[in-house]
Amino acid sequence: MRILTAAALVLDVFDLHERDRIVAYLTAEHGQRRGVARGARTKFSRFAGQLQPLAKVQVTWFEKEGNDLVRINDVSLVRPAAALQTTLEGILLGAYLAEHMKVFAQENEAAPRLFRLLDTTLEALAAGADQALAARYYEIWMLRLTGIFPAPRECPSCGREIAERAFVLPRDAEVVCADCGAARGGGERFEIGAGVLDLLRRSARENLAELGRRPPPAAVLARTEELCAHVRRAFLQDELKSYQVMRRTLASL
Prior knowledge:
- There is one protein chain.
- Strand 1 (2-16) and strand 2 (20-27) form a beta hairpin.
- This protein folds into 2 domains: 2-81, CATH 2.40.50.140; 129-252, de novo design (two linked rop proteins) (Up-down Bundle), CATH 1.20.1440.
- The protein is an alpha+beta fold.
- It has helices at residues 88-104, 112-126, 131-145, 178-184, 194-205, 208-213, 218-236, 241-252, and strands at 2-16, 20-27, 31-37, 56-63, 70-79, 165-169, 174-177, 190-193.
- Helices cover 41% and strands 24% of the residues.
């Protein structure tokens, strides 16, 4: 058995039996982990107020070789998740951000760039960043960091620079120029225009604060959301449950 301590982002918390909770969390050094916080449901638990989904914490845990679940010994709150808990939209967005990590981050495998992506996105949201822009930035970088959807520059089919219009071929998650996309045809291709291409490229060199100084139009953000969902579904052969719930709920308001 060994004891470890790291900064972590809480991804999910759910009840176990009458006294305990299971906590899923992400660290830069050890990737995604799941552990039991014993007594976390009791009235005077030392974990009271610390286990907030998407909070940043300092966590200490014991792990034993061969066990999937670790034993959480101590949790100290570093940054609360209050910015996403005050509105329904924020709660839905928080669940969506967290599910990405639960799906894409590997257990017990270092994930410094994924940790930094979620950490900086949550920090920006806490500072008042636009939620729609933050979500698109997060989606783009999640697909990019996992190697699914690199920034579009040159057409992989003909080598020419991609200009004002392009097509995405989701089986390969490739962005090809308008001519190559038209030639390849098929119902799976997804057309994107200059505004979306510009946002994809800007996100590769600008952080959220810089993007927020010259934000894309709402229509560009909406089309980028459709694009990321399109590529993600093609890769996973499914859709994130949190995204389905978010879209249904917001559509009903």
